[in-house]
Amino acid sequence: MNIKAMGERVINNHFHALTHQNYRYFWFGQCISLIGTWMQNIGQSWLVLTLTGSPLLLGLVGTIQFLPITCFSLFAGALIDKFPKKQILIATQTISMILAFVLAILVFTDTVRYGYVITLAFILGLTNTFDMPTRQSFNIEIVGKEDLMNAIALNSTTFNLARILGPSIGAAMMALLGPGWCFLLNGVSFIAVIYGLLRIKTTPYVRQKKKDVGILKEIKDGMVYISQDKRLLQTLLLVTIIGTFAYNFSVLIPVFTKSVLHLQERTYGTLMSCLGAGSLIGALTVSLRSKKGPKMKVIFAASMMISVFLCLTGMTGSPYWTGLFLACTGVFNILFATNCNSSLQIFSKDEYRSRVMSVYSLVFAGSTPVGNLFAGFVADRYGADGAFIACGLLCLVPCLAIILLFRSKNRDTEKQAAI
């Protein structure tokens, strides 16, 4: 068997979302753009820490960046189904590109100030409020339900491969040339994803506008729909806890690197790459097993393991153990997030999917302002090691309570049905 035939067999068996031409355009664009995004993420965190020297102010940047998602995600979910998603994504990606160039210019001209970074972070957050649920619900338009979980897993693979490469390149770039180049190259990287979107040809799903139904009524209908589906509700509650307390790495890892490990940029980039390497392993695992569909048992187990490894990370003072525990955290992060994301999209009705995914964006990313502020506050008072442990415990206890509560409710429902 020749190499081409072997490649086609692997794609058909394990990466079948890539058989869709539209998805290939989208995926290859993301491969390039996300490396730039991760370069900007670590560049921005290090820039803010250099400008202010305050973990709390660093946490505030994350809070401000994700605040629009917290405030406006539900409105975005009710609106985006009324317009072609491809056009929304072209607009949001273009705005993100411009913001990256502006930040690069501010750094190169030595006019960057903390207040400017906060402002740009807020505008980016407002853009992502529409970008995130649109991207999530766009996947099903370009691959269909059958290949949806594989597409989400491949997206995670791309995201986490970029999480390995981006911080490594970004850390080296900062050490040699300064953070401005991270922002400049991120801006350039958006050209790839915009080009890919322009090549995509698909029939968009546009929900028909109902007369005399306001946006608040549509939001309420979506929330009622979620509350009546136990599978959707339990998944979103777990995502709320993990999204709030587990995903504060952009705040905790740079502070942990400086104040606990007493090391510099290259170690910070390496630790972020370790997290990405674990996430990549998790994403590839999901890709290879995606035909079996999402599993609630995997969601339960992954939420518990994320909590445990966060606590273990806070208990080590060695960069090697820190890297290992972050890699393990990354594996379970992706197992959790991919199964949650797939479950919500597959088990939602078409007319509610964008609203469900807007709630997912709200609790997954929109909870970040609370989590970043909490992590920054605890790190400021008790150190980054104490913050890791606190975040781990605040994931473990509520997640366990939610799992046991819904298991009890399911047993009660089964008993009533038997009677």
From TrEMBL:
Regions that span the bilayer: 25-43, 55-76, 88-108, 183-200, 236-256, 268-286, 298-315, 321-338, 359-379, 385-406
Residue intervals of the Major facilitator superfamily (MFS) profile domain: 17-410
Listed Gene3D superfamilies: MFS general substrate transporter like domains (1.20.1250.20)
Protein localization: Cell membrane
Pfam families: MFS_3
Membrane protein topology class: Multi-pass membrane protein
InterPro entries reported for this sequence: MFS_dom, MFS_trans_sf, TM_effector
Keyword vocabulary terms for this entry: Cell membrane, Membrane, Transmembrane, Transmembrane helix, Transport
Protein name per Swiss-Prot or TrEMBL: Enterobactin exporter EntS
Organism: Paenibacillus konkukensis
